[in-house]
């Protein structure tokens, strides 16, 4: 087994332990292996041991990797900020776009996935912690955004995504994840299709699982922390 494969197996058993520990089923939690900046050969090492869900945060990089790995059964997730002129690389072509935070981008995704004859699943990125540097909508703006997005027939909002502040303070991290869960629970009455909570990365996935994450986005714990180029 390679280092990456060992890392992956260790991560999976930790996710199992944590979810058992808080009374959740591991099958309810999807792991997106974040392969950004790592070469296709590293992705192949993970595919070899039976995992096929990957995430990328740059539009050209995901476009290239989807092309290089064409023919393999891979579920691609786009997790990074998206500019309008790059929507065409991901809309209608990925399983899930995690990072939608404006109507302009939503409209473009709708248009492009219509061209592809697809309905694109998306998440709304929410800035729960309120940090200036963070992407995402204010929690208070999500309801009206959801209403607006109902008019678009080629996108389907299935949940929310957030990133916790970069801090060692576990309470701050927990409150961020909990805030996203409570927001979902509240809005689910009017928008029952809002189910997914994409939250939890290498440094905070344990807390995310405990707070109800349904999708984890984990890179460094699998591929290592020294980012290479493709
Ligand atoms: C890089 C990235 C991750 C994974 O981060 P790690 O700390 O390497 O696990 C998750 N989400 C987003 C949006 C990212 O850009």
Keywords:
globular; eight-stranded parallel sheet; binds pyridoxal-5'-phosphate; 230 residues; TIM Barrel
Helix-strand layout with pairing:
Layout: H1 3-21, E1 30-34, H2 40-48, E2 53-56, H3 59-68, E3 75-78, E4 96-100, H4 103-115, E5 120-125, H5 142-149, E6 155-161, H6 170-187, E7 196-198, H7 205-210, E8 215-218, H8 220-223
Parallel strand pairs: 1-2, 1-8, 2-3, 3-4, 4-5, 5-6, 6-7
The chain binds pyridoxal-5'-phosphate.
What does this protein look like?
The structure is a single chain. By secondary structure, this protein is of the alpha/beta class. The protein has a single domain (3-223), classed as TIM Barrel (Alpha-Beta Barrel), CATH 3.20.20. 38% of the residues lie in helices and 17% in strands. It has eight helices and eight strands, in the order αβαβαββαβαβαβαβα. The chain has helices spanning 3-21, 40-48, 59-68, 103-115, 142-149, 170-187, 205-210, 220-223; strands at residues 30-34, 53-56, 75-78, 96-100, 120-125, 155-161, 196-198, 215-218. The chain has an eight-stranded parallel β-sheet with strand order 7-6-5-4-3-2-1-8. β2, α3 and β3 (75-78) form a beta-alpha-beta unit. The longest helix is centred in the N-terminal third of the chain and has 19 residues, at 3-21. The protein is globular. The model has no long low-confidence stretch (mean pLDDT 96). Bound molecules: pyridoxal-5'-phosphate (PLP). Pyridoxal-5'-phosphate binds next to β8 and α8.
């Amino acid at each position: 087994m390679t280092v990456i494969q060992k890392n992956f197996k260790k991560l999976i058993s930790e996710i199992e332990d944590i979810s058992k520990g808080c009374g959740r089923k591991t099958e309810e939690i999807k792991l997106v292996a974040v392969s950004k900046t790592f070469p296709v050969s590293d992705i192949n090492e993970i595919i070899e041991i039976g995992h096929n869900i990957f995430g990328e945060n740059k539009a050209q990089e995901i476009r290239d990797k989807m092309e290089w790995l064409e023919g393999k059964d891979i579920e691609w997730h786009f997790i990074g900020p998206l500019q309008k002129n790059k929507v065409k690389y991901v809309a209608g072509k990925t399983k899930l776009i995690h990072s939608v935070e404006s109507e302009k981008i939503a409209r473009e995704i709708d248009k492009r996935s219509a061209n592809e004859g697809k309905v694109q699943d998306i998440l709304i990125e929410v800035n729960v912690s309120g940090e200036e540097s963070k992407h995402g909508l204010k929690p208070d703006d999500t309801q009206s955004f959801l209403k607006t997005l109902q008019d678009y027939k080629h996108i389907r909002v299935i949940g929310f995504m957030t990133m916790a502040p970069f801090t060692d303070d576990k309470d701050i991290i927990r409150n961020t994840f909990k805030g996203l869960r409570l927001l979902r629970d509240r809005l689910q009455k009017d928008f029952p299709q809002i189910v997914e909570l994409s939250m939890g990365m290498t440094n905070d996935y344990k807390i995310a699982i405990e707070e109800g994450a349904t999708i984890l986005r984990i890179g460094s714990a699998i591929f290592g922390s020294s980012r290479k180029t493709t």
